[in-house]
Amino acid sequence: xxxxxxxxxxxxxxxxxxxxxxxxxxxxxxxxxxxxxxxxxxxxxxxxxxxxxxxxxxxxxxxxxxxxxxxxxxxxxxxxxxxxxx
Length: 86
Known about the structure:
α1 (about 20-30) packs parallel to α2. This protein has helices at about 20-30, 45-55, 65-70; strands at about 15-20, 30-40, 60-65, 80-85. It has one domain: CATH 3.30.1330.30. The chain is built from three helices and four strands. It is of the alpha+beta class. It starts with 15 loop residues before the first strand and ends with a strand.
């Protein structure tokens, strides 16, 4: 599945979560259909997400920066990760 980060702008807040902790919760619940990770996020923060996506066979892609991801998700701060919910 190819995912363009700009598509996040059109996703309602009830169909996405923002932040590493929330994204991990959604992945563990089996509700994530795609995960977006900021390239400039600290590896120790996002590597568990990548590992879990691989384990659960959930597709993921990268945003150029935390600022871009946060802005695209409609928040005023950077975000290290976000997930689309099924």
